[in-house]
Amino acid sequence: MEAVQTYIENNKERFLEELIGILKIPSISADPAHAGDVKKAATAMAEALRKAGIEQTQIFDTDGHPIVFGEKMINAAWPTVLVYGHYDVQPPDPLDQWESPPFEPVIKKSETHPDGAIYARGACDDKGQVFMHIKAMEAMLSYDALRCNVKFLLEGEEEVGSEHLAGFCKEHKDLLTCDVILISDTAIISNETPSITSGLRGLSYVEVTVTGANRDLHSGVYGGAVANPINVLSQMIGSLHDEKHRITIPGFYDKVQELSQQERVDMNKAPHDEEAYKRDLGIDAVMGEAGYTTLERTTVRPTLDVNGMWGGYTGDGAKTVLPSKAHAKISMRLVPDQDPDEIVAIFTDHLKAIAPDGVKVDVRPHHHGRPAVTPVDSVEYKAAAMAMEQTFGKKPIPARGGGSIPIVSLFEEVLGVKSVLMGFGLDSDDIHSPNEHYGIFNFYQGIRTIPYFYQFYGELKNGQYRQD
Amino acid sequence: MEAVQTYIENNKERFLEELIGILKIPSISADPAHAGDVKKAATAMAEALRKAGIEQTQIFDTDGHPIVFGEKMINAAWPTVLVYGHYDVQPPDPLDQWESPPFEPVIKKSETHPDGAIYARGACDDKGQVFMHIKAMEAMLSYDALRCNVKFLLEGEEEVGSEHLAGFCKEHKDLLTCDVILISDTAIISNETPSITSGLRGLSYVEVTVTGANRDLHSGVYGGAVANPINVLSQMIGSLHDEKHRITIPGFYDKVQELSQQERVDMNKAPHDEEAYKRDLGIDAVMGEAGYTTLERTTVRPTLDVNGMWGGYTGDGAKTVLPSKAHAKISMRLVPDQDPDEIVAIFTDHLKAIAPDGVKVDVRPHHHGRPAVTPVDSVEYKAAAMAMEQTFGKKPIPARGGGSIPIVSLFEEVLGVKSVLMGFGLDSDDIHSPNEHYGIFNFYQGIRTIPYFYQFYGELKNGQYRQD
Fold first, then answer.
1. I need a surface site. Which of A112, A213, B125, B150 has the fewest CB within 10 A?
2. Residue whose C-alpha is closest to residue A21's, from A133, A89, A105, A107
């Protein structure tokens, strides 16, 4: 292990340079115009895996973006770890809010990263975190120090709902056989307070279209007599929360697991400075479901947010149009045991029920995923916790995450395997926002920590835990 | 007059061809990229005026788009008519809903125009209607048949609020001295039921921006704890109408003139087929203020419509963003005696009052105009009515219009002169919508009617009304 850590220390500048190369590829999976770039990123990842020593790496085409799969089976008696990650990125809009171009990586110091951070779309989510695993593998394999078998499954559609991953997993169940899935696509509480994500919210994402008249109309000639789809959609969206910021869709909370008083007390022990939180966001008040703290609202409570809305004239100046259509992209974050399909169904029923005469409402489901929880007494959680304790010098805190990685529940359903979410980002890394970045410290700390995970996981699985 | 009408009949095909040339110029005043085209349209209009015999025509530059002014002062003892119109057009968006390109005029038959209509942006609003006046002038001046003095004032900013017209009128009050203003920028009830617009709604147009956090956020990490500006703006907009579709802004209806029972009975005698109206719009129900008919809702009652709304991710696919900002363009149609400035003030106050903690609200006024009414017993109204009776063979109905021509109240304030709104469009001409068109019949009928207006107006003004 010492040799492995020394190798990492001696090669870390090169690791960073290689990551920069990968971050330059604008692999925006949501934008059909970038399909070629997504493919290019897949090729770059496969190449990096081969160079790290995972010679058995291939690219599988799907009806969407490709899937990169690599494996190194060393000893059939050893446990097998499957590393999952994604090489696609979120769209970089709004572009004018980036301080440097999203696909021209720049290293700069920031408040949370005094040692510097790399600014680029995908730096943290998830190219930077995937690349930690590839580089850790290179270090371990250079010294024949890997005591597990390893598989890599890297997809290009995570940011658009992993549409083709479920089919791939079902079709290639044997290829993907493993004991645990290791994912770095989450955050730690801070660089001083390591944590492991012990649960994730699920997601239901839908697109709503309200149609009034069959064409755009003059608001002077028709205004006042014909339903305006934007007014109607606004009213409908406005009615989806009550005064206590609870979601009003009948049945929405029926399957929500309420935490015990003790669980709530425990989770609120995690460091959280509400004033600093507000200052960072530039807001004078938080807003959320009455009776819950910010930490609870963002992790163990479900939400409903409009992610995008548009209709009518949105250009410069004024146009007195009464539009034919209004659109909204709406996502709901779900918690155990809410079911995404059921939620989409009751959402759709409710919207159609509250739609007034004079408009038509269409609800089109986008992607979705189930909420997931990793038990803290599992072997994989313990191995991850021990690995982090080695590098951070303190035990990580189990923390529920607010985001969604729908594939966690997919892997559980299809492969029957639990995932461990050992991520190294920070919530302030602006993933999905302009100026996404990833701490240089975090990138290196991840590479340093991963080899310990394999060591402890191998030992714990074999029932033989030795101190190195 | 017979010679004038014969001239029109013999030259009508050329008139149409010349109009087509002018409709090809994309003079979109709202779009800075088309500033050159707006100028080009001004030049074309000035050239057309000169060719029609208004040699004294010049183009005045403003800080915005130019103003075309022409005059023919024949006899100081005769009354002076000022023709107002605009050569700028609405933006053509959404382009994909046009059956033929907006600036490539096409002549096609339609349900309401069995003799054919010319399809192009600006065909009816207002290039086609302005051009009727120019061609009628050409016919009258060819036979020395004009018994009034005439001035033309054509602006290029009507669709963006006539920002520089008020200043121009104040500065050139003497140049604009006249007895009446004649405007063709409105509609008749149908080709079988001529009408004259006896009143117009006013307008207050504002742009609202709601800002939450200082940057776009990940809806998983922050969702549920931070105000979402789209949700908030939707809720605010939704609250601006109550269940009876009345506007909830305190004081909004304070100055609204309620019509007498008799006035309401009279105005509802105008032909209106609610089933045909719904069928034409493709809607199963109308929607509007409880207790009023569709005709009332679109003319004598004030409204509040969102003309455009946008925020967050509006591209293809799904992006789980919690946006920093949401925007809406909102217009209110006003009726006598609502004051646009007062309405903007109470709107702004109300929006700020209902904004929750955690967001900032900014309201930016765009353009506005006062409501206006033309008395049906005035000389100019009578002259227009008599002219229409000549060509349509029946008396026109006085009809209140739902749209806004803010310059009508401007002319009254600055020049102390009333306007007569003798338009020839149809409400179904899709002005401000894709596939705007103008009936060939209506274009020719306008050219035929206008010379009668000058004849009757001259005679009535001189107290000597002779039958021709």
1. A112
2. A105
